[in-house]
Amino acid sequence: MEKIDFKDYEASVMREKLLLHKFLFEIYEYFWVTRNDSLEVLHAEIDNFGYDIVVCANKQTKHIQLKSLVSGGTTASFKINDRLELKTGGCVVIQEYEQVLSEIKVKYHFFDAKDLSSFNNAKHTKANADGEKKIREGIKEVPKGKFISFKSSKEFIEFLFPLN
């Protein structure tokens, strides 16, 4: 069987699913082991409103857009659907990942999407026939520096779902 390079663009769907499941596992594990509590997870079938999943826990709801970034990657900003700011607890979570031996390590970064209107509209990555990169209405460009970084998944989850 051919070995799969986790960073390869051809593995992007598998990588996205693996990181989603790792994210959900870490949240479920934390709530079960640390808080002796449960949570509800809903998946968006289509990403029209800016979020991938909805997580409800501890009387709080978060509409979450997941993004991934290879550790040491040079991505300076992320494109965010501005409809996310209309959703309860709308936020973006970057999973910065690296493969260490046989394990995928993830660091989390968080952005609260409540005020996306203050950011510039994103442009298309490819130019049209006239060589112009048109504005993408409804998509905002958010610099990575605007995200809050966390040292551990526990710290991140406690920030995302604080005890009341």
Description of the structure:
The chain is of the alpha+beta class and 164 residues long. It has one domain (9-159): Trna Endonuclease, Chain: A, domain 1, CATH 3.40.1350. The protein has two helices and nine strands. The protein has helices at 12-34, 153-160; strands spanning 40-43, 53-57, 60-70, 77-81, 91-100, 103-112, 121-123, 135-143, 148-149. Strands 1-2-3-5-6-9 form a six-stranded mixed β-sheet, covered by helices on one side. A three-stranded antiparallel β-sheet has the order 4-8-7, with no helix packed on it. It is globular.
Helix/sheet category: alpha+beta
User: What percent of residues are in strands?
Assistant: 35-45%
CATH architecture: 3-Layer(aba) Sandwich
Q: What oligomeric state do the depicted chains represent? A: single chain
Low-confidence spans: none
